[in-house]
Request: fold
Amino acid sequence: MMPTESTFLLAGLLFLAASLGYFFARFGDDEEDEVEVDKPSSAGTLNADYIKGLNFLLNEQPDQALEVFLRMVEVDDETLETHFALGSLFRRRGEVERAIRVHQNIIARPNLSTMHKEHALISLAEDYLGAGLFDRAEKLFKELLESPEYRLRALQKLVRIYEVTHDWQQAIDAYKELAKVDPDLKEVGQIAHYYCELAEHAAQDRDFSKVRELLKKASSHKHGTVRAQLALGDLAKETDDHKQAVKIFLDVMDDEPRLISEIIPRLAESCRALDDQELLSESLNKLRKKDPLASKSIALAAIHDPQIQNSTALHCLWDYIAEDPILVNLVDPETLEESDSEVRLMASERMRKGLATFISSTHRYRCSECGYVTSQLLWQCPSCRSWETVVPVGHLSLTSPIS
Ligand SMILES: [Zn+2]
Reply:
């Protein structure tokens, strides 16, 4: 981030305020003489340093300013607070290296009170986190677990670090500790997701009994069970128990209609393995009866998965094309309406192939919280870190926007 004038001015004002404090303490009227007695004798020198540092800041020379402030020998509570303000200012501006230097400088001071030491440690830990130095941040946050004041914040940050570094077992442990101390914690299924992540790793290693055990743990939590259910369906499919897989997939679509277009290809795969297109048609018709919007999701799934050749799915696709004000111009609906169903199916199949090459696969899923788009289903949004907010988009997204 480029330095801006206003932030330098803000920093300057902080130092000016501190400097003025000394002026008034030393040169104030008689009523304030008592205050002067308590001030350090080197206040004049200190004040000169501040003015020098302030000048550097105002001249947009933060490194020179930093050198002056870091070299200041006399640091009492008041100037320490100013150092903290400077450190947090640098971090907010994205100048993490400078923030780290300020906070390291505070920690290195002798005779620091526990309160200031912990304040400096948490600030430095946040600097490291901001710089992506997760190992160093983790170490400091762990040190702060003993602090009554910072335990909650340290646990929140540790959970975040373990999520980012995909250290799911540690995330589970830290989250359980966090739940004990955070009365405002909103359970949105994180623990279930952490177990599901571990289960996915076990599935990659084809350790299916471990997968089952982990998914059972995930399902025992109140939220986040849709993912665990879906993983159980995948497990059944993977182990050739397709009847069970179909049953689970239908249940999940019932619970979470937003995922219909994601699940249809899996359902279709199991029906193909069972050589039972009737079962697939029956299931799709049930979905359409229950939710009129399901037809659209089925059509989108059919476009994305060329292996879906089921007649009901292709009918849904035809309806989608016929109802779309742009797509309908690409076919001759009146003539096709009069043709028999086979001709219509062939036409929609041609459209399907055409559309599959035009639509954007990079914009298949979108986060309902922040608008982040991606080509695959993600359970945690990498941008805003919300859980279960990335869902399939309900419409076609073209590769090149029409302008
Ligand atoms: Zn998001």
In short: The pocket of zinc ion is lined by residues 367, 369-370, 372, 381, 383-384, 386, 389 (CB under 6 Å). The chain has a mean pLDDT of 83.
